Amino acid sequence: MMELKSGHRVVEIEEEKNEEQKRLFKAYTKGVVKLQPGNWFYTRPFLDFADKIYDFKFRPTDIVIMTFPKAGTTWMQEIVWSLKHPFESDNQLDGFPCVALSSKYNLLEGDFVKSTGSGLSAIQADDGYQLLQKHCPGKDPKNGVFLQIAEKISDPRIIKTHLPFSLLAPSLLNTCKVVFVARNPKDVCVSFYHHSNIVKTHGYTGDFNKFFELFLNGEVMYGPFWKYLEEAWERREHPNLHCVHFEDLKSNPMKEISKLNDFLDTGLNADQIERISDETSFEAMKKKEPKKCNTGTCPLMDRSKGSFFRSGTVDSWKKNFTKEQNDKMNEWIQKHSSNGNNFRLRFSN
């Protein structure tokens, strides 16, 4: 049985479930695995990069944005970038989301995400491959496009990840600051469903009912949801960890951005924070979405199925859930959030 440097064991998934994943997610042609302990759910290409990610050297000046997928990652990375570069806001969303790496921010595990089904072809098809040649001439993309560019980015690096603490370097929190964003799993589930339809590195072909069941069972990429939050909850008192609720950020962005300003020691005044609040609103960010993502030319998005910036609201789940699904998820939330070992999230019934 294969064991990773993180101490996790690779567990093969029964053939029937593996084949189901391949049918439902067009990009998962290499299959899926689970990692124990934790029951973490990943596509097989993660194994090619897991140890390299675990060995990644963080710097004291780094800021790591950690979220479960679709919990406010893009929003938070733009806020953090703007706090660190308050006079460069006109350059926001430079190439994002078509190029999800630059001097602005980097998806730490992006190499395995883009290799889910087609190896390096997905990386070579977009600007990320060209960026590697520009910033790291002569480097072999098989060793990681995202990882090697991240190593070259100048300080302060803003790095995002959907990986849990247990799959990252144990020294992470003692080395740099981490901003963790939690969101109502009902909205996460709906947003992740739409995201998996649009983004070609998932290529989801099933309906929402099936995705809902997979989400609750922890059988979507990066699952299980509650275990992911639990690892952050265990570390909530660490001075280098700042936890944000998506719903709080939505209801009072000035207050939450001010807290981030204090946490990151960026020293901005109220007027600057208000400007950042305005410029990182959903409406403002949607307007800046690169044109090629809206014309069908983006190699990583099926634009015919929708926009990367879809809703950005609280309680959008109400348009998707049946009463039975809502009752089932309420029971699931109660089970995992009322035992004192996890976040009590802000959500409506």
Strand order of the largest sheet: 5-6-4-7-8
The main β sheet shows up as:
5 strands, parallel
CATH class reads Alpha Beta
Ranges with pLDDT <50 over ≥5 residues?
89-103, 117-125, 291-297
The number of distinct β-strands equals: 8
**Structural class label:** alpha/beta
- Tally the structural domains: 1
Total helices: the number is 16
Report on the structure:
The protein has 349 residues and is of the alpha/beta class. The protein has a single domain, classed as 3-Layer(aba) Sandwich (Rossmann fold). Helix content is 40%, strand content 10%. It is built from 16 helices and eight strands. The chain has helices at residues 15-24, 46-54, 73-84, 110-113, 121-124, 127-135, 145-152, 172-175, 185-198, 208-216, 225-233, 246-251, 253-263, 270-279, 282-287, 323-337; strands at 9-12, 32-36, 40-43, 63-67, 106-107, 158-161, 177-182, 241-245. Strands 5-6-4-7-8 form a five-stranded parallel sheet, sandwiched between helices. Strand 2 (32-36) and strand 3 (40-43) form a beta hairpin. Helix 6 crosses helix 7. The radius of gyration is 19 Å and the shape is globular. Residues 89-103, 117-125 and 291-297 have low confidence and may be disordered. InterPro entries: P-loop_NTPase, Sulfotransferase_dom. GO terms for molecular function: sulfotransferase activity. Belongs to the sulfotransferase 1 family. This is Sulfotransferase 1C4. Residues 60-336 form the Sulfotransferase domain.
